[in-house]
Design a protein that fits this description.
Length: 183
């Protein structure tokens, strides 16, 4: 009898052949199916084995999809710097996002990350790595993001450690002398 993972692999293979999908497995938590104009982000079911880390990564993927869908609805607050999620199943089970083109290393190296994530009273939670960005209709956008929030509230939010560390530096830079409560 086929396991759920084998069944899903078969379904993916069928879709790939039928619709010309390509599959990107570079993400830690999500499998991304690419069509001409859109991508589909799914939690990495196929990595779901008995180990705890796979299970936690799967949960993390649900959270990331759900946060991405929510942030995308606030895109207008951040000058549409987010590659939009055009359809999402609530709970993070599946996101459909517009497909962006990859960003060359030299473009990423020249990127003013601080300027990108600050948008007036709002900040973007986007990791500072090349694979978080893409080009959509000739504009640089974030393709892997987890929040849009009022900058005064960043300390109250759940943010990944790398983003949190960066927010802390930006806040200090803006004259917010308080630490974020950690040494
Ligand atoms: N909108 C998009 N357009 C084109 N490619 C995309 C898009 N979204 C994601 N990808 C591709 O899929 C890969 C994985 O997607 P994503 O970064 O969202 O997953 P993740 O699990 O959060 O990955 P990571 O471990 O890097 O945080 C990206 O590095 C990129 O190559
Ligand atoms: Mg990510």
């Amino acid at each position: 009898m086929k396991t759920a993972a084998q069944l899903l692999k078969t379904i993916l293979r069928t879709f790939r052949l039928r619709f010309g999908l390509t599959v990107n497995r570079e993400g830690l938590t999500r499998v991304v199916l690419l069509t001409d104009k859109h991508v589909v982000k799914l939690p990495n079911f196929l990595g779901l084995r008995s180990s705890e880390s796979s299970w936690l990564l799967f949960l993390q993927a649900l959270v990331e999809n759900a946060r991405e869908a929510k942030a995308s609805r606030l895109n207008h607050l951040v000058d549409n710097k987010l590659c939009p999620v055009v359809f999402a199943i609530p709970g993070g089970w599946l996101n459909v996002m517009k497909r962006a083109d990859p960003v060359p290393a030299q473009v990423f190296n020249a990127l003013d990350y601080a300027a990108f994530i600050r948008c007036g009273d709002y900040w973007l939670a986007v990791e500072n790595k090349q694979s978080s960005f893409g080009f959509l209709d000739g504009r640089l956008v974030a393709i892997d993001y987890s929040g849009v929030f009022e900058r005064s509230r960043w300390k109250q939010l759940f943010l990944s450690p790398s983003i949190r560390a960066y927010m802390s530096l930006l806040a200090l830079d803006e004259g917010d002398g308080e630490s974020d409560g950690r040494e």
